[in-house]
Specification:
The complex is a heterodimer. Chain A folds into three domains: 30 residues; 30 residues; 43 residues, no CATH class. Chain A is 75% helix and 0% strand. Chain A contains four helices and no strands. Chain A is flat and about 55 Å long. Chain A starts with a helix and ends with a helix. By secondary structure, chain B is mostly helical. Chain B has two domains: 171 residues, no CATH class; 49 residues, no CATH class. Chain B has 13 helices and no strands. In chain B, helix 2 crosses helix 10. The chains are: A mainly alpha, B mainly alpha.
Chain lengths: 108, 234
């Protein structure tokens, strides 16, 4: 390993904190009833959604080794469970983990 | 300082039915195991989760350590992937401001901004008196961060017992939770458009630039959704 781990951790934390910090500074001037606030709300949800799509379709780490069809099937089944269970978050999340681990054992 | 009653009330939100605790725990167990496998020690792993507390950033850090990327490269890559925290902060903190709260508290409290705590706060802020919302938020954030840190430590210690299939199972839990939350948040036309367009444009921009796709995709989708929603309301 060529670079110092502690320095890397610090660089990662500072790079992450910057966005939070700038957010607080910007927030000072924004009223919750304003249009700008509404716009930022849309931006927050759409960036989260873009990140989520990227994690599912072009994942990094362990998920990258799973066939994309299996990933889609698992997400799809969990979503149905979520809707059918009257929007319970526990069932789909637990099922998702178990189901993918199971399918991955069979097909890989 | 901090109002204990509201802090505790916020802290115990972690037990509610729509709590992100399971998803948070699963993904940080995976992170802890990953940290061990790339050679971090337990102190460094806990230190990293405590200070960064943002999953995609930690994943990038781990991958960069494996390939030996430069410090500047890591900094930029993490900043890009975690820049989503900026609109998240701006769309949350105006709800928490109150003149009785000291400024410094906001700069410390913003460290707790992460999808998990942010979602709880977005759901619950109306039920909390404005003066105490920041204390409540600190409670919510502290609970989530504690789950993340304990999960990292747990993952680090059980790393040797986790096989590849289990790691894959842990890794999907967070995206599943996330997807359910996003579908649950699609209550107005504006929100639904922001979420649907965000995922479509995020992917399309990936083909142009994998680093910038979240920001470009999110920005264009959010702006488009905002204007369509506004036109629709008028």
């Amino acid at each position: 390993m060529t670079i110092n781990i502690v320095l890397t951790i610090l660089a990662t934390s500072i790079a992450t904190y910057i966005s939070r910090f700038l957010g607080v500074i910007t927030s000072k001037k924004i009223k919750e009833t304003s249009k700008i606030f509404k716009w930022f709300n849309c931006l927050a949800y759409s960036t989260l959604s873009a990140l989520l799509a990227r994690i599912i379709i072009f994942p990094a780490g362990a998920l990258a080794d799973v066939d994309y069809l299996i990933r889609f099937i698992v997400i799809f089944i969990c979503l149905i469970v979520f809707i059918k269970s009257k929007r319970n978050f526990v069932y789909p999340t637990v099922l998702g983990g178990v189901l993918l681990a199971f399918l991955n054992t069979i097909f890989n | 300082m901090i109002n204990t009653k509201y802090f505790i009330k916020g802290f115990f939100c972690i037990k509610s039915a729509n709590s992100p605790a399971i998803a948070l725990f699963a993904s940080f167990v995976a992170i802890g195991a990953l940290f061990k496998s790339i050679g971090l020690n337990i102190q460094e792993s806990i230190f990293s989760t405590f200070l960064t507390y943002a999953l995609p950033g930690s994943l990038i850090m781990a991958e960069s350590l494996i390939v030996g990327a430069s410090l500047l490269n890591i900094f930029l890559a993490v900043w890009l992937v975690n820049a989503r925290l900026y609109p998240m902060t701006v769309s949350l903190f105006p709800l928490l401001t109150h003149k009785s709260q000291p400024r410094l508290k906001y700069y410390l409290a913003c460290h707790f901004i992460a999808v998990s705590a942010w979602l709880i706060m977005k759901e619950n802020y109306r039920s909390i008196e404005r003066k105490y919302r920041l204390d409540y938020w600190i409670g919510v954030g502290a609970a989530n961060l504690s789950v993340a840190i304990s999960a990292t430590a747990f993952g680090f210690f059980i790393a040797d017992y986790l096989n590849k299939d289990m790691m894959v199972g842990l890794a999907i839990v967070n995206p599943v939770y996330f997807t359910c939350v996003m579908v649950g948040a699609m209550k107005t036309i504006q929100m639904s458009l922001a979420i649907i367009l965000g995922s479509i444009l995020g992917i399309l921009f990936y083909f142009i630039s994998p680093e910038w796709c979240i920001l470009f995709g999110g920005f264009s989708a959010g702006t488009l959704a905002f204007f369509i929603g506004e036109l629709n309301d008028n």
